Amino acid sequence: MPFAVYVLGLAVFAQGTSEFMLSGLVSSIAADLGVSLAAAGLLTSAFAVGMVLGAPLMALAGRTWPRRRALLFFLAVFVAVHIAGALTPSYGVLLATRFVGALANAGFWAVALTAAVSMVPDRLKGRATAVVVGGVTIACVVGVPAGAVLGERWGWRAAFWAVALVSLPAFAAILRSLPGGVRGDGEAAPARNELRVRDELRVLTGPRLRPTLLTMALVQGATFCAFSYLEPLLTRTTGLGAAWVPAALALFGAGAFLGVTVAGRYADRRATALVAYGMVALALGWSALALTAGRPVAVLVLIPLLGLLAFGTGTALITRLLGQAAGAPTLVGASATAAFNLGAAVGPWAGGLALDAGLGHRAPVWVSAALMGLALVVAGARRAAVAVSGVRVTE
After folding, report:
1. pLDDT digits 0-9 by tens, 115-125
2. How far does the chain reach from its first CA to its final CA, in angstroms?
């Protein structure tokens, strides 16, 4: 595996820490800025909305740039908005910085996924994808719990400063390790570029890929819905002290890392099987967490298992999408990022609605279970349509 692929994973680690760390900071942010828990949860949704909108827009805007230049630009913007977020006393400004930071993160993700798989032969594309996505899971293991500890000791702003600082070594590593002359499809003439974009959009919006993208969004929606409100669930329903929150987040991240590792090893050969079994297990797992949320031992056992299932299934879905969308090399990474984060936007929003309705702190977990049930319906409908048409379902 080229070293540059691991460098991309390092940068994604810093960005993934930012995306996930609010799950351990929502109470302190809400108290400091004088807003509700649901409003604090919307900071996660704002980040996800920025990712959804930014992934295709940034991929198209940066397609004429050398990949190294694009990655460095997106990472520099990401650092700048985190410094602004750490300094602001305004919820509105913080919300805006989350959105802008997500646009930069989306552009980075879209270029990074495409760059990583372009550096390796076909037999290693699943592993290259897992290395990049693995940066997020390491963020869950190390970065997110560390952010929760910083927030507990020095306030939530310390976590934002830490993300900015951790991003600087990634910036230097990309500058030194990624080839400077590697470009996207933008080297072609403008008219040819327009034709390619239309062709890629036709591939991505076709009947073969739409169900995969929708399934990805629903699976991630379920993950982010429960994860965004994990801290109040643990402290107010499970009865664990605040000191347990970083440990629980680390358990989730450890499970996620294992899930990505397993998916990276087997998704190239058995992506469809991994997705099918993982989705069923997730639907059962989120339901089990909701039912046993008042029992600390059960919760601490389920959390790493759910991390494994969520990120293993998500990685297998990305691998399957990359395999199905060979005709859309510029926009496939952006589409995967957009689908991933559409779920990350809808999930916390739906969980916040359940909380505001007075349904209790278990309610977001039940919403996660419902989203997984809907994902199973979408996947089942796709298989039924394929069976009726007589077309074989591919891995």
Report:
1. 777 777 767 77
2. 23
